[in-house]
Design brief:
heterodimer, A: 226 residues, mainly alpha, 9 helices, globular, B: Rossmann fold, 6-stranded mixed β-sheet, 4-stranded antiparallel β-sheet, 6 helices, 29% helix
């Protein structure tokens, strides 16, 4: 039997190749996220200070809403011809399937999140006062905090008839704490971190990631096995 | 032939509101080729999926070479109605993924050539015909070189040359000592080389019969 790392690498490779071949999926997700940002910029009114203060919130709301498209699509691919069942009948650990798919979803969310940043800067006049690396770290960890439970719940909802409704219903309440922490960390990057709070908020997101990436690996077999 | 390759004891499977299988008792010896037949809706597909551990049994148990079916997945291959391919990947990518996940160590290019997809292996599966998809599913079974191979309607969607290919594959698996279960409506064709037949009727074994 292969090592779990080799299995995870094989599934991740499949996810990335599939992502590249079906790049219209990522374009659709990105377009949806940008359209959401644009709507928020109009809905927020003409108060420039308020728009700048809330820019991080709009960015994360846009990414969270767009994530349901990406996550749902990642399991539609698995159920379309029952590919997930064929994978499970191979001598592969379900945890490797989880980590491979979660990493694939993380890549999508990070790319969409990074594409949203320049649009956020332009639409909300929200050029970051802190280093771009900090902003990148907050987006990466926040996306990871959505990708792990999102993968788990997308798998759970995949076989349901009303999966498109079920996924946000299951996912959104769960990720509220990490989205709040990600908004705070990102807002500190944009507005400046005079009190040095960035690390604390990022630690909250990282803790959320540790819990959900661990739980996903442990529980994925119960979700995908009949 | 040795001890049982597959042992099913009181296997039942219930879907919402109805039993698809009830009280299935089967003992299939190692190396046997078994014809599984019955009317539409008699439970053939469900039985194969339960034996392969793709579905869990609601009652009873299935063991493969003495191990619970779910622990014997490395030895079992299932070709089912849903072919399990990723449309956006090429045939080669689909097989390469199976190899990387531990499904045999065969040569992907040679296997594609063997099933007649040598010149289309690098194309996306999305562009394959139903018969080509079926051939790719056979390639996955060949790569795994399983001790137990289960086929659900293996002749469906194939042309006459494909039918001959499937017959040859069954003969090859039998010669290699694999246990083969074939669910089909082409009863006469498969009965010609089967060691036993199992007829299902409304989710129950109606008649285990020796055919040769």
């Amino acid at each position: 039997m292969n090592s779990i790392l080799a299995e995870c690498a094989a599934v991740t490779r499949k996810e990335l190749v599939h992502l590249w071949r079906a790049r219209s999926r990522m374009v659709a997700t990105g377009t949806f996220a940008l359209a959401t940002l644009l709507l928020f910029s109009f809905a927020g009114g003409l108060d420039e200070d308020a728009l700048r203060r809330n820019a991080a919130g709009y960015l994360w709301l846009g990414l969270l809403l767009a994530s349901t498209l990406a996550l749902g699509e990642s399991f539609r691919v698995e159920t379309e011809h029952n590919a997930i069942e064929m994978l499970l009948l191979l001598p592969v650990r379900p945890a490797a399937l989880f980590y491979g798919k979660a990493i694939g979803n993380l890549v999508v969310l990070v790319i969409v999140g990074l594409v949203m940043v320049p649009f956020t800067v332009v639409l909300f006049d929200a050029a970051p006062k802190e280093s771009v690396l900090k902003l990148g770290a907050s987006i990466f960890l926040g996306a990871a905090a959505i990708a792990a439970p999102g993968t788990m719940h997308a798998a759970l909802a995949a076989r349901a008839r009303s999966r498109d409704v079920l996924l946000p219903l299951l996912l959104f309440p769960l990720v509220v704490p990490c989205v709040i922490a990600s908004v705070q960390a990102t807002q500190l990057c944009i507005g400046g971190d005079a009190m040095g709070q960035f690390g604390a908020w990022l630690t909250v997101v990282a803790a959320f990631c540790v819990v959900h990436w661990s739980l996903g690996g442990l529980l994925f077999d119960r979700v995908v096995e009949d | 032939m040795n001890g049982p390759a597959i042992l099913a004891i009181d296997v039942g499977r219930r879907f919402v509101g109805r039993w698809a299988l009830r009280g299935i008792e089967l003992t299939i010896p190692e190396g046997a080729t078994v014809l599984l037949h019955g009317a539409n809706g008699s439970g053939k597909t469900t039985l194969l999926r339960v034996l392969a551990s793709a579905l869990s049994a609601t009652t009873g148990s299935v063991s493969i070479f003495g191990k619970p079916a779910i622990e014997a997945r490395a030895d079992v291959a299932l070709l089912s109605h849903a072919d399990g391919h990723y449309d956006e990947l090429s045939g080669w990518d689909n097989l390469d993924l199976a190899v990387r996940l531990g499904s045999g160590k065969g040569d992907v290019d040679a296997t594609l050539a063997r099933v007649g997809l040598g010149n289309r292996g690098r194309d996306a599966v999305r562009g394959y015909s139903a018969g080509m998809r079926k051939r790719l599913a056979f390639a996955r079974v060949l790569l795994k070189a399983p001790k137990v191979a289960m086929f659900d309607e293996p002749y469906a969607a194939l042309d006459p040359a494909g039918h001959d290919f499937v017959d040859g594959l069954f003969a090859e698996l039998k010669a290699a000592g694999s246990t083969v279960l074939v669910s089909t409506h082409q009863v006469a064709r498969v009965a010609a080389f089967s060691d036993m037949a199992v007829r299902l009727h409304e989710g129950r074994v109606a008649a285990p019969e020796a055919v040769s």
